[in-house]
Every structure is written in structure tokens, then in C-alpha cells.
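Need C-alpha cells for this chain, all 138 residues.
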Amino acid sequence: MAGLDVSEVIRDPLFTSPVTLIPRTETVDELGNPVWVDGRTVEVQAVVTSDMKSIERLPDALQRAGTIMVRFMKDDGPRDFGHGYDAVKWRGRKFVVKDCADYSQFGQGFIRLTCWPEEASDAGYRQPHGASSNAGWF
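Here are the C-alpha cells for all 138 residues:
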């Protein structure tokens, strides 16, 4: 099975979409609190699949819904990406990398990321402050 080469599918424009990889490093602010700083971003073409049904329960009734799986060729991304608090930007939304798997043994090698939305919500739909009631919010 290690002879399987998926590079043609992962690089095929029919299956890929642009994804921005955002490596992050942890620093400390003046009060000693952790702060994550975005590093140099890299845009790659990746196969992205989404599962809008998954929900991760968090404390105080917060949830994260809409995990995505991102697959890109290992040579296309930054070295050591997918650790700590690295992020992915896809279709205007940021996702935090929850899991990273290195499939170097398959053909030219690819990376598979499991990501969840960066922002947490209480699952409520609220009208933005200052928007009219007929602005199309459901």
C-alpha cells in the first residue's frame, strides 16, 4: 500500500482549493500570559473536505462545529507545520490544527490536517449590533 501515489489527485485543480497555512509561535506578554504570534504564511493548493455535522463540546455550553480535513503535498508546505497552535485559513475562515499526520511513505508524501474552527460559539444566531431587523439574518 505504501506504493500508492496520491500526488496527481492532491495537485489536480479539479479537486483542490487555495488554503493559507499560518504557522504560529508562542510568546509571553508583559503579564506572563501566553500569546500566539502568526508567522510567515504560505498559500498551497489542497484537497479540503468538510464535515459540518461534527460538534466538539466545550465548557459553558460553547461548541465548535464544522471540522475540515486538509491534505496537501509535503513539499508544498512549511517544514514542521501542524504543531502547537498552527492555523489554516480556508474560504475566509480560520481553523486551528487539531491533528496532523505525515504520510511521507505514500508516493511523494502528503500531510493530512484535521482542523476545527478557531472561534467558539454558543450556537446562537444573533443579529450584529447596528444591523436592521430585515438585513437577511436568520
